[in-house]
Every structure is written in structure tokens, then in C-alpha cells.
Design a protein that fits this description.
mainly beta; homodimer; 130 residues
Amino acid sequence: MIVRNLAGIRASECNIKSENNTWESARMLLKKDGMGFSFHITTLYAGAKIQLQYLNHFESVFVMSGLGSIQNLANGETHVLEPGVMYALDKHDDHILRIEKEITCACTFNPPVSGREVHDENGSYPADVD
Amino acid sequence: MIVRNLAGIRASECNIKSENNTWESARMLLKKDGMGFSFHITTLYAGAKIQLQYLNHFESVFVMSGLGSIQNLANGETHVLEPGVMYALDKHDDHILRIEKEITCACTFNPPVSGREVHDENGSYPADVD
């Protein structure tokens, strides 16, 4: 059994901040934990506009606090992000996040992230960096 | 892209209540969604004492609100459950949850739950009911 605390993870090397200061992510579970997925508590800063497409991962995001939107670039549709909303990128969807009030969300990645990835020019993570 | 709302899931057949009135679980993502994991927002009722062991699944649980504890029956250790705490059952750990104030938590299961499982006599889910 693994037991971890968000405050402890945020104070550790498992808390990753984006280079352009749009988000940070506390990696609560990583590939090395052997769960078959990784689990992150991510903060998206107010004012951020972030385009992402995870070509090598499925990701689900559950919004716990804050306000923003997600635009699906496949069809242009925009969905409000507010507490209780979940989106799941089941088609490796190219998308834009727009953050109005700082969002905190719970994210699951399959396959699990190792913790050393950085977003590439497509806003994607590589397939495996181990 | 899948977009769902907790209130909508709670009002649907994807909201499962335990027979003994100790928990309910809103299945935000299930096996059929093809993400390779399932994702549930689960409520554990105040006063509940629940013994579980998922012999066929890995589960992680992130506590969003409430207060309680988890006891690891392999070594007897007890850990406080409060907002920000995550536990991960990486060894199919036999455990007891004790709920002091109603807990709401975000749960990920690998392999994904199909939504039709019920806990068996061990507090486990079957390997696959499809």
C-alpha cells in the first residue's frame, strides 16, 4: 500500500512546473509505482491558454475547483470546465484549455507517465522515456 | 472526447449504491469508454466501516473532502484519510476503511470496472464480468 499526501508531493521533485508558467502538476503516482496508470493533481493558472495533444497517452481530467473551458479542435466545440466536469481524451484529441479562474484537477494517464516527460512541439508526451 | 458532469452521472444508472448503505459511487468512466482504466467519484458515508480487498484490480483513491482512516491489514498500520491524502493498493491490499465524516474521493481502477460488479465475500470485484 502506498500512502502519499498532496502537500508532501508538492514540496518534492515530483511537483513539475511548466516552463511558460501556465500549469504545475503534482505527480502522486508514476510509472515506477506499478499501478498501470499515473495520477496527478494539476493546477492550471488563471489566464492560461494551453494547446495539448497527447498522441501516446489517454488522459482523463476531473475538475475539482476553478473555471475555464476546453475546445475540441476536431470539431471546434467548446465545453465549460467547472467543478464536477470530467473530460476524457479517448481519441488523443487535439484541444485548447482556456483558464478563467485557477483550476485544480485530478488527472489519470494511461500508459503511466514516468515523470521525466516534457511536452513536445505538439503539446504531446513521448511514448516512453525510460 | 468524452465530457461528463458529476451531477448527470449521479442522476443516471452509472451511480451505484452499496446494499448496506455504506457508500455510493458515480462511475464517470467505465471499461466501455476504452481508456484502459475506470474513474469513479465515490462517497463514503459517516460511520461506515468497510473491509475491502481488490484481488483483481489496482485502485488509487484521492481524498477530496471528509475524514476517516485506512488500516492495512497486512501490517496493522492505520493512516489518516483527509483532503489531499492518496492511497494506492499496489499489492491488492486487504484493508479496512473507517469513516468519521463523509468522504468524497476520486478513484481510478486498473483494469477498468465494467459497472456491473458487486463486491464479493472478500470485498473484491471479479476479474471481468463482461
